What we know:
Blueprint: H1 4-9, H2 11-20, H3 27-66, H4 70-107, E1 126-131, H5 144-150, H6 156-162, H7 172-191, E2 195-197, E3 202-203, H8 205-211, H9 214-220, E4 222-223, E5 230-231, H10 235-241, E6 246-249, E7 255-264, E8 283-293, H11 298-314, E9 320-324, E10 336-344, E11 349-358, H12 362-367, E12 369-373, E13 376-379, E14 381-388, H13 392-401, E15 408-409, E16 423-424
Parallel strand pairs: 2-7, 6-12
Antiparallel strand pairs: 1-9, 3-5, 4-5, 7-8, 8-14, 9-10, 10-11, 11-14, 12-13, 15-16
Helix pairs in contact: 2-3, 3-4, 5-13, 8-10
This protein binds one RNA strand through residues 41, 44-45, 47-49, 51-52, 54-55, 57-59, 61-63, 65-67, 73-74, 76-81, 84, 204, 228, 247, 370, 377.
Amino acid sequence: MLDMKFVRENPDIVKQNLRNKFQEEKLPLVDEVIELDSRSRAAKQEADSLRAGRNTISKQIGALMGQGKKEEAEELKKQVSANAARLAELEEQENELADKVTKIMMTLPNIIDPSVPIGKDDSENVEVTKYGDPVVPDFEIPYHTEIMERFDGIDLDAAGRVAGNGFYYLMGDIARLHSAVISYARDFMIDRGFTYCVPPFMIRSNVVTGVMSFAEMDAMMYKIEGEDLYLIGTSEHSMIGKFINTIIEEEELPKTLTSYSPCFRKEKGAHGIEERGVYRIHQFEKQEMIVVCKPEDSPMWFDKLWQNTVDLFRSMDIPVRTLECCSGDLADLKVKSYDVEAWSPRQKKYFEVGSCSNLGDAQARRLKIRVNGKDGKYFAHTLNNTVVAPPRMLIAFLENNLNADGSVNIPEVLRPYMGGIEKLVPKK
RNA sequence: GGAGAGGUAUCGAAGUGGUCAUAACGAGGCGGUCUUGAAAACCGUUUGCCUUCACGGGCACAUGGGUUCGAAUCCCAUCCUCUCCGCCA
């Protein structure tokens, strides 16, 4: 969410930002919200002065009552009543206008970083850097569910009967591998100085609207029936929400946290042929990292965050690349975002395994996360990034560590979490 | 889930319809006096948001409504915390 004052003073920047994000349909909203804001402030000013008058008279009434001068008090009461109707009318206007302003402000996207490439959609995202050799072996790599089945590692049929499409049972070694990856990722981040955290897996609606745009909310979040609770789509939601309505001392920044949680997503939208199996699912587990920092530090943290994910994947012998989201593909709250993509030797292309975002002060403004600095209070910046999110990550893992004989290498870093074994041998 | 108590500033806590809500009182923090230094003592200071060029004004006592000329105080709803009981991994 933008600062209303900023919009008022820089309508042209806000409009150019909309054009950069190919959201021309929102252009009229800028002038509209400035107009509504000015009417809102006018109503507030008039109402405030009426309230000031009422307060003064009420005090006088109190004094007169104290002295037992009831008749004079009654006279003054009439004066207050005279303005009551106008005040009620103004108060209604104030509320109505303020609601309209907020509603529009919630739909105006954050100002993107100047470094973000301009493009309409994900087809115009820009590759930044590649790490490792994207090897295509001389034997055929099966579809990931097929690899898992060779280890009796997945039961999608049962999951379908129990919970429906988009769920899974991981079994045996594959399930163990899943947990090993999460545990390794947790320790990897702890070693890099992040504080480990297990957060709530459900959050209230006010936190939901604080951390994401309406469009995202509708497409992602599961609501608990009869309660003001939503299942989290990522622990970022509860981790950023942790700081709602707080004032953090500047010396305490940055807050660097790594959290584990299951993630629940509706995944509204088309499911392509490449999204069978455990690629796009309603429930997965994720190790996440988040940072709350000073505004001037957020670009630095952004680079550190995505680098962590690259390093983690490289330590498991998985080639990756970073892809910068172009303006049109960037969610409304984000200032800048990189996807981390892993190499798929089967598809001979990279696919998304993580997403690193700098939200600027957008979440902080919505959630009122402020910093007490030497020169006054200001909104913090927030960032988040995937450490690792299996089971999707297992697709990359299995494809890249598969041998011609069907066995799967366990990279050295994972062995302590896998009972020391170096290789998974298929049962079939 | 049942019964009870409670939610006021950084913390503890007073205020139960007005004339002490920025808010008593106590503690903590910050600045100062005193001291070789420290402690103690003493003095001062210590919420946030909105609005205004400014002076100023408004709002906030968990949250949202209501009653009233006027609400921390009375009424209704919701949330949270604590104690006891029940249930439970």
